[in-house]
Structure formats: C-alpha cells, structure tokens
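Researcher: Sequence recovery benchmark, item below. Answer with residues only.
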C-alpha cells in the first residue's frame, strides 16, 4: 500500500480510502451490518487505513457501523474521515454550517464513531448562509480542543476555499474525480497542488461504471441513486460502457491489469491524491493490490484521453448529486435517524 502525509495526523494515510456511503444503505439499496463490519476489517487487513464516512450516509448508520467495526482495538489502525454541515432534523436534507449545528454534529459523530477524536473533519457541502471564515474558525476551535486533527472541505470551489482558509488552515479537499468526471482539473486540482492540499477523490469508480461489471442489462433496485444518474440512462450508458470496454482492453494489453485498476491508478498518478474505493462486501476489496506499485506513462495517458474523446459524445458530470443551497434536496419521509 502506498501512503501520503497529511499535516496533523499521527501517521501517514493510505492512498486508497474505504468509502462507506454504500455501507450506510441509503441510496444504495439497503445495508447489511455484519457484512459491512467484515468489509471494514478487510480494508484494514489490506493496508487501507483511511475510512471515509459522513453522518448523512444512512442518517447515522454508516458512522455507527464504522464505530462498531473499529471498537476493540482497531481504532488505532484507522484514519477516520467524516463530515459535517448537512442536517436532516426537519425531515429534509439541508445545508447548515451554523456554529451550534456544527457543534451538535461533531458530538453526534464522536458518539456514533465511538472515538474521542476525528482524524479528518470535512465540511460536506458549502453553506453560503454562513461566512466560510466563521465555519473555518468553528472547526479550528474543535481542533484546538483536541476533538479533530485535520480540517477538510468537500465540494468547495477555489474561491470558497480561499475564504475558508482565511479562518483556519486547510489540509484536504474532497471533490468528485474519476476518468469520466474531470471538471476539477480546471480549478480545484491545480489549486490543491498550489496550496499543498491532499485531494480525496470520491466516486473513483464512478458509481461502479469503472469496475467493469455493469452492462446494459444491469438493474438497480430500491432507492439506488444510479436510477437517477444520467450516466446510467440512454443514450449515455452505451457510450460509457463502450469507453469502459476500450479502457479495459488497453489496461490488459499494456499493464496486464483490469480497467478497475487502471481507473484507480489514473487518480493516484494525478498528484497528491487519495482514491476513495466504495465497498460493502469484503470481496469488493480483492483487487486493491492491482492498483499499487506501478505508473501510467505519458503515452498511455494520451491514449486514455483519445478513447474518452472517441466514445463519449454526451458527457455529463456529477451535478445530479449536489444539494441545492439553503433548501431541501430530498424528503426523507419516515427514514430519519438521530
């Protein structure tokens, strides 16, 4: 496993992080707690020490499962990265970075995670109703109290990060980034490089598209978010699947690797990056080693770009996942959690 240094952490972070949105169940068709705990243990045994979660993933369920999995001595092996700034107490998901709400969310996360300190604490989505400088100062208070170690933001633009950094130092940024969703290359990625921020790239496999197992016949059940993802609908799905097939052929011929390993390695070769690997079963972590210990050369990078330009004519980003500022994004109905 490759590692990277993040200021404020007692040890280096693995360049693969376990993403636990699916473990929370919500928008992924449910969750199996026992299987999820096994998955977290498998991640640690595989050399992955960064466990990325959030309160809104299952409305507390993901954090609770992470806490149970790390209890009994496993906590010291892990770098816990969680988030704040989204609230669902009204029955709808809202952005809320008010100091009092951030304090409440911190204490709730510490309790659910069964820990006294969070390693990386990230603002999940920018809340323009609260000055970013004030939000930063609130998180800096938490750091001085010893309740968090490093500060991060997720889904922030460079201008928003500039304002945030006037209130506190910033160590990480978590944007969507994968072979199919590359918008951050225009602004966030160079900003992170300039200011020494570690990029935690979420959606590394683009909701499973880059795992190489999805076909035109794949069905998504229940509340699976891919039922509303434009990438998984005609005419785009066939284009993305064609790209995956060509990328898989290139990866196997050039590196004797599957497309999944190529997709993760591609992120790791883009700078000071960590790739979030979503999994909810231990077997989904089996290919982790395939992404380690090699590099994609410049010529192959150009071939990858050519394949994407040739196959994808109706590209679309991850905008469908963004909660609108200052208003509800989705009714939770009866599905609330404390």
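Model:
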């Amino acid at each position: 496993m490759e590692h990277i240094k993040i200021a404020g952490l007692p040890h280096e972070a693995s360049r693969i992080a376990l993403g636990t949105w699916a473990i929370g169940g919500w928008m992924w068709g449910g969750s199996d707690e026992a299987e999820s705990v096994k998955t977290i243990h498998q991640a640690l045994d595989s050399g992955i020490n960064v466990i990325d979660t959030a309160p809104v993933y299952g409305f507390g369920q993901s954090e609770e499962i992470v806490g149970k999995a790390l209890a009994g001595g496993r906590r010291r092996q892990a770098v816990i990265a969680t988030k704040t700034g989204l609230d669902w107490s009204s029955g709808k998901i809202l952005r809320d970075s008010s100091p009092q709400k951030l304090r409440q969310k911190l204490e709730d996360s510490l309790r659910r995670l069964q820990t006294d300190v969070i390693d990386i604490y990230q603002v999940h989505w920018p809340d323009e109703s609260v000055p970013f400088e004030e939000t930063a100062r609130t998180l800096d208070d938490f750091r001085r109290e010893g309740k968090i170690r490093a500060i991060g933001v997720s889904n922030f633009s460079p201008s928003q990060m500039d304002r945030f950094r006037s209130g506190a130092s910033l160590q990480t940024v978590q944007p969507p980034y994968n072979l199919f969703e590359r918008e951050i290359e225009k602004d966030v990625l160079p900003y992170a490089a300039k200011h020494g921020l570690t990029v935690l790239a979420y959606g590394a496999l683009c909701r499973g598209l880059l795992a190489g197992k999805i076909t035109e016949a794949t069905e998504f059940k229940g509340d699976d978010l891919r039922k509303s993802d434009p990438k998984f609908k005609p005419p785009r799905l066939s284009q993305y699947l064609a790209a995956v097939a060509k990328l898989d052929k290139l990866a196997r011929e050039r590196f004797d690797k599957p497309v999944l390993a190529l997709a993760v390695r591609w992120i790791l070769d883009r700078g000071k990056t960590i790739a979030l690997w979503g999994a909810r079963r231990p077997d989904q972590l089996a290919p982790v080693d395939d992404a380690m210990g090699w590099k994609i050369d410049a010529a192959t990078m150009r071939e990858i770009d050519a394949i994407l330009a040739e196959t994808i004519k109706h590209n679309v980003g991850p905008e469908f996942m963004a909660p609108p500022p200052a208003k509800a994004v989705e009714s939770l109905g009866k599905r609330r959690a404390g």
